[in-house]
């Protein structure tokens, strides 16, 4: 079944329209999902509420609310800074969806980094980052980057995430490759018999 998803063998837009009532997907949620599928088909990356608002008449606030609802219901997920439709696609194909790991408590992590309680506005800013499709780990990585740079502001964190999304960075702190030491020499070089070369 995963091959069907990877090779796009199924027309999920038609399947969504036919099964939306059965899955209790509202008309507006269905409309936004169709817009996300269309943007994905034409290669728009990352898909954000502002990208969606450019091609529809819904307000940005309404799009945010619908996206949060879709994420909460596990019809879409956030992976590496963009929206992922695989949970919905698996549901449309009657495949069991894997429950995602518990979300990180971003508010307490931000409060630890800032050294104070967050205001309501700052909590809304964290939610808006999640609505833009950034996953919790990436938001924490951007926060760590801002702490490392000594500029702990939401504007800086948002710019870091935007840059990562633009250049396709999926994980900021990837494990480093083990370095080979200069003493390690390939076995074929060790076994080379140079004195036999002229014979």
From TrEMBL:
Domain of life: Bacteria
A Pfam family annotated for this UniProt entry: DnaB_2
UniProt-listed SUPFAM superfamilies: DnaD domain-like
Residues in coiled coil: none
Domain DnaB/C C-terminal stretches: 108-170
Residue stretches making up the DnaD N-terminal domain: 14-82
Similarity field: Belongs to the DnaB/DnaD family.
NCBIfam families associated with the record: DnaD_dom (TIGR01446)
The protein, known as: DnaD domain protein
Organism for this UniProt entry: Massilimicrobiota timonensis
């Amino acid at each position: 079944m995963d091959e069907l998803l990877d090779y796009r063998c199924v027309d999920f837009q038609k399947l969504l329209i036919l099964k939306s009532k059965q899955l209790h997907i509202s008309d507006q949620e269905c409309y936004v999902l169709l817009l996300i599928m269309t943007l994905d088909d034409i290669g728009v990356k990352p898909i954000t509420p502002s990208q969606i608002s450019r091609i529809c008449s819904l307000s940005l606030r309404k799009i945010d609310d619908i996206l949060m609802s879709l994420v909460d219901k596990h019809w879409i997920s956030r992976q590496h800074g963009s929206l992922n439709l695989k949970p919905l696609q698996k549901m449309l194909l009657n495949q069991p969806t894997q429950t995602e790991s518990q979300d990180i408590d971003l508010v307490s992590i931000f409060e630890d980094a800032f050294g104070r309680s967050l205001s309501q506005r700052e909590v809304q800013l964290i939610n808006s980052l999640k609505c833009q499709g950034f996953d919790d780990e990436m938001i924490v990585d951007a926060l760590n980057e801002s702490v490392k740079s000594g500029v702990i502001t939401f504007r800086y964190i948002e710019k870091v995430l935007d840059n990562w999304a633009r250049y396709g960075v999926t994980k900021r702190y990837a494990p480093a490759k083990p370095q080979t030491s200069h003493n390690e020499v390939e076995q074929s070089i060790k076994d080379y018999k140079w004195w036999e070369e002229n014979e």
